[in-house]
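Morning run. Coffee first, then this:
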Amino acid sequence: QLQASGGGLVQAGGSLRLSCAASGRTSSNYVMAWFRQAPGKEREFVAAIKWSSRISYYTDSVKGRFTISRDSDKNTVSLQMNSLKPEDTAVYYCAADNSLIQSSIRQWSHYDYWGQGTLVTVSS
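And here it is:
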C-alpha cells in the first residue's frame, strides 16, 4: 500500500517535495517511481529508484530539476522538485513493484502498486 503526499500550488521557479510511504516488506528488486498525468494527456514517467542500489532514472524534461531519493528506515520515497514550470502541472502518482527489469521501469503498466494521486499546480 502506498500513501502519497506533498502536492500543492506553487509559482513557477518554486519548489515542492512529494513523499510516498510504502507499507509492507520490500524485496531486493523493489522499484519505486513517480508518474504524472496532466489533463487530457497520458500518464508519463517522471522518475524511479531501485531500492537496493539507489540507482535512479529520470525523464529528460526533469533532469537537473527533480531528485528522487528513498529512506529505507521510513520506507518512503521522495521527489524533490525544484525550478518548477507550468508544464509540470499534473496529478503525480507514486508506484512500486517488487521485480522490474530495467526496460520496464519507465512503463506505468508494469507497476503493480499505486498510491493515490497528489495534485501539483505550477502557476506562471
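The radius of gyration is 13 Å. Good start to the day.
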